[in-house]
Amino acid sequence: MPLSFNPLELPVEGIDDHLPAVALPHLSPEALRSRFLAPPAWSPEIAAERAFGSRAPAHASVLVPLVQREVLCVVLTQRTDHLTDHPGQISFPGGRAESYDADAVDTALREATEEIGLARDYVDVLGSLPTYTTGTGFIVTPVVALLRPGFTIQADPFEVAEVFEVPLAFLMSPANHRRHSVEVGGVRREFLSMPWTGVGADGRPRQYFIWGATAAMLRNLYRFLAA
What is the tens place of the pLDDT at every residue in 65-84? Predict the structure, then answer.
């Protein structure tokens, strides 16, 4: 669904630097594993967006892959511009649930294999976050997992324009979370962004604009880890 506005052109209305970052010791593989095994009492900050239309809801899953490097990094994808849903946007690997999937985790793993060639043998699932409902009608289960070294990435060129990584610590620091709003069809919509300056496939510095549902699910991960 093409957007009627350009999120990059919207002003920043606030920065959440008054909130503490998740401390680095809490972002280790061991700490994350312990957190999912014994989760605290918490609730997601953002559970749903206002619907853009009347399309019937559909279940979906995304994989939130955390690469075990010197510091954990989150694998994200840039969707190709010709896709029907969320074209050109930054997202987690994932997609619509199919009848043959065993559960939400199975959907996330299957989609990650199809989209970026990620073999299940390298994926260590930690657990899932509460569902997030997008304005386009998808009820999304975020599945958080560690990626063991040795995996390879081979993106499906039809769906994925680029695969890149962002340090988890950057995303778990609200000082990097921006607030925006826009009026669409007489309805005010609010969203977060987490702009990241990385290195593109050509080796040059590039700005990646992480926003919308992806940013909201990362914000919920922050709330889970900071609780």
Answer: 999 999 999 999 998 765 55
